[in-house]
Design brief:
481 residues; 3 domains; six-stranded mixed sheet; four-stranded antiparallel sheet; alpha+beta
Amino acid sequence: MESTLMKALQLIVALLILVTVHEFGHYIFARIFGIKVNRFYLFFNPWFSLLKYRPDKGTLEVIGWTDKDGNDKAWKTFKVGKTYPPRADGKQSWRNTLYGLGWLPLGGYCDIAGMVDETKSSKDLESEPQPWEFRSKAVHKRFMVMVAGVLFNFILAIVIYAGIAIHWGDRVVPFSAMTEGMDFSQEMQDAGFRNGDRLLSLNGKPLDAKDYSVSWDIVQPGAIVEVLRNGRDTVNIEITDHLLSSILPKGNHYQPMTIRVPVIIADVQPGEGAKAAGLLKTDRIVKVGNDTTPTITEFLPVLAENKGATLPFVILRDGKEETIDVSINDNGKIGIQMLSPSEIFDIEEVHYSFFAAIPRGWEIGTDRLTSYVSSLKLVFSKEGAQSVGGFGTLGSLFPDSWNWYTFWQITAFLSVILAFMNIIPIPGLDGGYILFLLIELITRRKPSDKVLEYANMIGMAFIFMLLIYANGNDIYRLFIK
């Protein structure tokens, strides 16, 4: 329960950041073009709001709602500072906006005056257009207001990735240093990979461990992956559609491959078999009984199969082989700690200056976007549709405990996803409005408010059905599957 709450908290904080930036993009461009913003809300507020700030009154309302007669009510109202009345010259400013915090963390909205959206219908726009309304502005200005949310989300992703580069840099094990190769999932093995293969190149280009999307890129249909097998044979593996469709239903924590780590002793514990047998730090265990154990992958199962037994262990010590009898306890342990990959393999560390981090952020952001877009075509397959998830799936991306590096990595990726999903030309999303604006720009004819209202209704119905389906998948996987 504690880990679930921590995941939920991280998701809510991430959504708060993403929604704020997205809606601020719409807000700031509306303000630049002199368009009035009626309300600016983080999260949705059906029936009531958690907070409302009114600059024109200088008040903060806690638990505010509107009664059946249309009157604003609040549980508590506080005077929080100076009163900022509307400008005397009639120009729109931040003072004309009601700022609120809703209670339903599914998004947010920027209620722009004179625009048909989820907050207004065509009936609300029957009055004469005002110069400070959205509908009165030139099409290129309306286009900029609508595209700003997507643009700000993508910029946010680049800024976060650049910040990660400045603060943490890159610290990776190069593929060339992975002397034992990789372990591959069953799906990867079915596609032609073998445990111990060393990854060399993708589509003729050397693989770079600093590339955030390597694991995703090498499973794309049509990819040609070159590997070194058995330390001597070069093999080219062509990826088919079946691999990706078999991976998608596995969930977010599925790992198609992991680095193979040799069994090298970091420390021995007193009172256990390793200590009694005389095993030492830096000894490498290469064989247990009749089983070769070049890596941890083979070593741990052999111990589990021989609980309580005493077996000859072949070790490498100072470059020479020695055989030592070691007792395995009833839990399948011998009392050793093993070196981690970062302690065994050569590590490549890259530190970025402020100016070097900007292109690094751009590189990662565009790479993430490209990988995500290329994967969307599989959503329309049976396996892809089954893999679609809602808020439970998004929450499961986060770790059980708070980790700033992981939090920012996931938040940046979600920002990329939000940017792309909003640009899809579905009415109700930014992309739907952008599509109508492009049509207007080309044809010089503006769609009627009624057309926009009906399109918006259809789009919102589709979005709600998609949300129900995605979250239904989460419930099915959690409680049934």
